[in-house]
Design goal:
Layout lengths: L1 H7 L3 H7 L1 H5 L9 E2 L6 E3 L7 E3 L4 H6 L15 H14 L7 H14 L3 H8 L3 H8 L5 H12 L11
Antiparallel strand pairs: 1-2, 2-3
Helix pairs in contact: 7-8
């Protein structure tokens, strides 16, 4: 997904419009309600899911795409739905072969792979743990389970089996 985004971006303005999605797992309209004062931590306000801080997974993408250097495009949307539709249209215009919302799902899974507690991940996404698990657990692939298992089993400080 990230390669498709990188290949489809040809201007700093479009970088700011599209690239925060994979880094922060925002709803498409929330891009237009962010405060960058504490960048790379975003402070989201006025969106559908309420005020909150969101941390990037991976922060390197913030540097790669220079997310704190661009400016948002001037748009005409009056509602969150209008704003989200503008982002969806931008994805189509740049030939990105999936919907912006897929990047929110990817962020949820990535935060789990990083080891972020599910309650913190849910809070950063602006919903309850119950909603988080009901929605995003369906997106966890067998490969993600395998990587998590291998990481736990290969930890040097993991519990050892009892002596028989």
């Amino acid at each position: 997904m990230i390669t498709a985004i990188s290949m489809g971006i040809d201007s700093p303005r479009s970088t700011v419009q599209i690239c925060p999605e994979p880094s922060f797992g925002l709803l498409p309209h929330e891009l237009f309600h962010c405060n960058l004062t504490n960048f790379p931590i975003l402070e989201v306000g006025e969106g559908k899911t309420g005020n909150r801080k969101v941390y990037p997974f991976y922060p390197e993408w913030c540097e790669l795409w220079k997310l704190n250097e661009g400016t948002l495009p001037v748009i005409t949307g009056r509602t969150n739905s209008d704003l989200g539709n503008r982002v969806t249209q931008a994805f189509k215009r740049y030939g990105i072969p999936f919907a912006p919302y897929n990047l929110r799902h990817a962020w949820a899974i990535r935060s789990m792979e990083f080891g972020l507690d599910v309650s913190l991940s849910a809070q950063q996404m602006g919903h309850s743990v119950k909603v988080h698990t009901e929605i995003y657990y369906a997106w966890i692939s067998d490969e993600v389970h395998q990587r998590a298992y291998e990481a736990l089993i290969n930890r040097p400080n993991r519990p050892r089996p009892p002596q028989l």
